[in-house]
Automatic annotation (TrEMBL), chain A:
Identification of the protein by name: Interleukin-7 receptor subunit alpha
Organism: Neovison vison (American mink)
GO CC terms: cytosol; external side of plasma membrane; nucleoplasm
Main location: membrane
Localization in the cell: Membrane
N-terminal signal peptide: 1-20
Span list, region Disordered: 320-359, 381-415
InterPro entries the record matches: FN3_7 (IPR040997), FN3_dom (IPR003961), FN3_sf (IPR036116), Hempt_rcpt_S_F1_CS (IPR003531), Ig-like_fold (IPR013783)
Alphabetical list of PANTHER family matching this protein: CYTOKINE RECEPTOR, INTERLEUKIN-7 RECEPTOR SUBUNIT ALPHA
Role played: Receptor for interleukin-7. Also acts as a receptor for thymic stromal lymphopoietin (TSLP).
Transmembrane segments: 239-262
UniProtKB/TrEMBL annotation, chain B:
GO BP term (any one): interleukin-7-mediated signaling pathway
GO CC annotations on file: extracellular space
Localization of this protein: Secreted
One function term, GO molecular function aspect: cytokine activity
InterPro entries to which the protein is assigned, alphabetical: IL-7, IL7_sf
Top-level lineage group: Eukaryota
Protein name stated in the entry: Interleukin-7
Signal sequence annotation: 1-25
Family in the record: Belongs to the IL-7/IL-9 family.
Pfam families in alphabetical order: IL7 (PF01415)
Organism expressing this protein natively: Neovison vison (American mink)
Length: 457, 175
């Protein structure tokens, strides 16, 4: 008896141990490893077929043997306590109008009529909208943009009406480079400048509940739509084109003018050259004409009284100056002339007469500022009058024309000395070198200047 | 002296019984934000209202039965509780499945949002007005008339429920 009892005890003990390893415990609790095998997830679709709703569930582990497994939903149902799922391949679904849509329901996983696991969920929090459809892209040339429109079946539904849509587009050659835009309406505008010209694009849309009361998951993507962006034709605004052409021609003209006038006009103003003293002198002292008998021989100016311009004084002083100077030695012929001239007021006409008036009229003197030099003298002395040096009553007849400065002009010849209109003669025969030496210091300076110039020539 | 004690014995208890419903606990309303009402209940109420108007031509007078119960201040929960129970009695008045489901959704949904502990249930004093006749010998016209009356009563009740919910939501917004 004792042995028999012990045997039965051991058998029962073994049975209990074996049943524990198989996953079924007496207290109804299950091993964690077994529970994980039966984990499942569900989503709902409201008004999917008229007023009927759809609830779809599936086990997370695809290797689960669902042959004998059943799913049952209880709670938050109308007029019934529980509903059993239908099985299709590896999916469990239930299609009914009897969802209360308020409060939580409980889904049981049953094996052999007994619930092995359960899960609480709210039908309105696991809503998966239907995929959008009929997506279209229209190019608006006037607005330079693309109008994207699509349709959704939820616009006609009563419960899940407010959705959030996600539009995704990309250039076909750029894989995994999707651009995403979230909108609440069924229209979207894409600017042309943000897209590549003459490129092929593809675009698709999906939806999700707006999280006000209904919540859930993203729907499936809509069918992809392809569209091509237009080329940039290059057609410009006519006004802009005209302005650009005119500007181009203006710039070209300015460049040509600048190149042509650079040397003559522009460079002297922008970068004036330093004056060359030799050239300046050449301009000042132009070569006299061939028929002009001009001589800078100081001896030819022996008869003339030379005064410095800065020392211009009154006629009286000039007369005094003449009186101070010693007259040069004259030839006999000249002496006779002098005597003769003392008697007669008139002069022989053969003398070269230069009057201020005549002189003025025939004045060859030109200003230094012009192209000619002051050294030109329209004088043709055939003889000289000794009266040139006289300081008698007839008054001095001095001509200071040769000493005139650069301020003279062609029209008039200012005379520094207001001498009486008389006769001025030059005596070319007189080459008074000694006369030079007998002049004062100022006359010597003038002669020196002239002589040095003569020597340079 | 005997007369005084007799008065107290037989006078006070009925008074207590009469005053007991007033002193009973009220219902707590969970959906005061209005999400469940706006997204679920109001849709069913509107659909029922549309169905009733299409089928009946109701008079403007309110049945006496419904006049007894009103959405008074601080008693909105009780009113909704009684109205929700009353809605169940209108089931099968109409043979349409959608009609009955909407009715049940309003009734059960309202009760789902209420947390009441009433001490007495809601019972219609005159069941003959809302319940279809079981007498098979009645005329079809009489049947139809009664059905029409029931639907009219239901329409009025639904409007009262809608008004009471709006009052609750308005009050919660003000607070």
């Amino acid at each position: 008896m004792m042995i028999l009892g012990t045997t039965f005890g051991m058998v029962f003990y073994l049975l209990q141990a074996v049943s524990g390893e198989s996953g079924y415990a007496q207290n109804g609790e299950f091993e964690d490893a077994e529970l994980d095998d039966y984990s499942f997830s569900c989503y709902s679709q409201l008004e999917v077929d008229g007023t009927q709703h759809l609830l779809t569930c599936a086990f997370d582990d695809p290797d689960v043997n669902i042959t004998n497994l059943e799913l049952e939903i209880c709670g938050a149902l109308l007029n019934v306590k529980c509903l059993t799922f239908d099985k299709l391949h590896e999916m469990y679904f239930i299609k009914t109008k009897k969802f209360l849509l308020i409060g939580e329901s409980e889904i049981h996983v049953k094996l052999g009529g007994k619930s092995i696991t359960s899960k609480k969920l709210n039908i309105v929090k696991i809503v998966k909208p239907e995929a959008p459809f009929d997506i279209r892209v229209i190019y608006r040339e006037g607005a330079n943009d693309f109008l994207v429109t699509f349709n959704t079946s939820h616009s006609q539904k009563k419960y899940v009406k407010e959705l959030m849509h996600e539009v995704a587009y990309r250039q076909e050659k750029n894989e995994n480079d999707w651009m995403h835009v979230n909108i609440s309406s069924t229209k979207l505008t894409l600017l042309q400048r943000k897209l590549q010209p003459d490129a092929m694009y593809e675009i698709k849309v999906r939806s999700i509940p707006n999280a006000n009361y209904f919540q859930g998951f993203w729907s499936e993507w809509s069918p992809t739509f392809h569209f091509r962006t237009p080329e940039i034709t290059g057609r410009m605004d006519p006004v802009l084109l005209t302005i650009s052409i005119l500007s181009f021609f203006f710039v070209a003209l300015m460049v040509i003018l600048a190149c042509a006038l650079w040397k003559k006009r522009i460079k002297p103003i922008v970068w004036p050259s330093l004056p060359d003293h030799k050239k300046t002198l050449e301009q000042l002292c132009k070569k006299p004409k061939k028929n002009l008998n001009v001589s800078f021989n100081p001896e030819s100016f022996l008869d003339c009284q030379i005064h410095k311009v800065d020392g211009i004084q009154a006629r009286d002083e000039a007369e005094n100056f003449l009186q101070d100077t010693s007259p040069p030695q004259l030839d006999d012929t000249e002496k006779q002339r002098l005597r003769g001239s003392m008697q007669g007021p008139s002069w022989p006409s053969e003398h070269a007469v230069i009057t201020p008036k005549t002189f003025r009229g025939d004045s060859p003197f030109r200003s230094l500022a012009g192209s000619t030099s002051m050294c030109e003298v329209l004088v043709q002395p055939s003889s000289r009058s000794p009266d040139c040096r006289e300081g008698g009553k007839n008054g001095p007849h001095m001509y200071q024309g040769l000493l005139l400065g650069s301020g003279t002009t062609n029209s008039t010849m200012p005379t520094p000395f207001p001498f009486q209109p008389g006769i001025l003669t030059l005596n070319p025969a007189v080459r008074g070198q000694p006369g030079l030496t007998s002049l004062g210091s100022s006359q010597e300076e003038a002669y020196v200047t002239m002589s040095s110039f003569y020597q340079n020539q | 002296m005997f007369h005084v004690s007799f008065r107290y014995i037989f006078g006070i208890p009925p008074l207590i019984l009469v005053l007991l419903p007033v002193a009973s606990s009220d219902c707590d309303i969970e959906g005061k934000e209005g999400r469940e009402y706006q997204h679920i209940l109001m849709i069913s109420i509107n659909d029922l209202d549309t169905m009733i108007k299409n089928r009946t031509n109701c008079p403007n007078n309110e049945p006496k039965v419904l006049k007894k119960h009103a959405c008074d201040d601080n008693k909105e929960g009780i009113f909704l509780y009684r109205a929700a129970h009353k809605l169940k009695q209108f089931v099968k008045v109409n043979d349409s499945e959608d009609f009955n489901l909407h009715l049940l959704r309003v009734s059960q949904g309202t009760l789902q949002l209420l947390n009441c502990t009433p001490k007495e249930g809601i019972k219609l004093p005159s069941q003959g007005e809302v319940q279809p006749t079981k007498n098979l010998e009645d005329n079809k016209s009489v049947k139809e008339q009664r059905k029409q009356k029931s639907l009219c009563s239901l329409g009025i009740l639904l409007q009262k429920i809608k008004t009471c919910w709006n009052k609750i939501l308005r009050g919660s917004k003000e607070h």
